[in-house]
Amino acid sequence: MSGLTARRVLIPALALMSAGALLAGCAQEESASSTTSAAAASSAAPASSAAASPAASAEASAEPVLDECSPENLTLVTPGTLTIGTDSPAYPPYFVDDDPTNGQGFESAVAYAVAETLGFTPAEVAWTVVPFNKSYAPGDKDFDFDINQISITPKRQKAVDFSDGYYTVNQAVVALNDSPIAGATSLAELQAAKLGAQVGTTSLDFITDVVQPAEQPFVYNDTNDAKSALNNGQIDGIVVDLPTAYYITAAEIEDSKIVGQFPAVEGGEEFGLLFAKGNPLVQCVNQALAELESSGELQAIQDEWLAGDAAPYFTE
User: Fold this and answer.
1) CA of 170: how far to CAs of 112, 156, 192, 271, in Å?
2) 68, HSE (Cβ side, Cα atoms, 13 Å)
3) Which of 136, 137, 115 is nearest to 127 (CA)?
């Protein structure tokens, strides 16, 4: 083959080879481009999902939280109404004019303050009569809570639930000015006395467990009967809580006095609001009491209705 012929054959062959290489290069570029696009799309999907997650969380967190202690969410004897129990007659200084609904007296004022803190208006509060001894008996209740100078004791807590204490009290002895124990200053001087108290009360337990008199205590159906016995000279003295002692000596029995009060026991005796066993309302009422205590309102109510000169403490 001549040189010219060889060149004529070689040139077309090279041209074909170059064209093939060019086509192969384009194919690789298209493949790479497709791969890059797919990867980008694949990466974008999780990114979009990740971007959506905070938004979803924000939307979820924006949902309103249920307020278990708002009136509409409380479990009540009568929906929309806070039903409160107390005994009748209702005595000062806890109630005034035997009318719990007027908001006057220490316990009436406390009850309405708790109701207001829970979100109830005075018109949304109803009162029902509950005898003292019946209040802490086992079983269902026809009230949401009872307020009636009921001391919190382990024995009662077996049958009912209590709120945190709304008042810490001491027990005191009331006697006539000419009583044999009018000048007593120690427990020893009380042990020969005839002492009385209302049935089922902490005052009666205090006579039995703390004073331990030589003679069995005189037990009465209510405080009125005990006061009558004292006034008629049938007993030497009665044991009542200190606020009641102040009122008896100031307004009910002439020529009477507070002989003395007993030092508080460890932890102090407390009055608590009483509930049916297992009532979930206790937690919400405790929150209300805590607010009233921290704001100073509970102390202000106490100062208004239970003020008085301090009674002397008995010695051992």
Assistant:
1) 24, 19, 22, 11
2) 7
3) 115
Residue with tokens 């009568």: 78
What sign for the dihedral angle of Cα 262, 268, 273, 276?
Answer: negative
Cβ(2)–Cβ(10) below 8 Å: no
For 44-70, the pLDDT digits (tens) are 444 444 444 544 444 444 555 668 999
Distance CA 85, CA 127 (A): 6
Exposed e or buried b per residue across 276-295, where buried means at least 16 C-beta atoms within 10 angstroms of its C-beta = beebebbebbeebbeebeee
Structure token pair of residue 86: 């107390």
Return the SS3 of 276: strand
Which class in CATH covers the domain with range 71-169+267-305?
A: alpha beta
Task: Fill in the DSSP letter of residue 296.
Answer: T
pTM of the complete model: 0.63
Alpha-carbon dihedral angle through residues 238, 244, 246, 247, given to the nearest 10 degrees: -110
171-261 architecture in CATH? Answer: 3-Layer(aba) Sandwich (3.40)
User: Helix 281-295 to helix 297-305 angle, to the nearest 10 degrees?
Assistant: 80
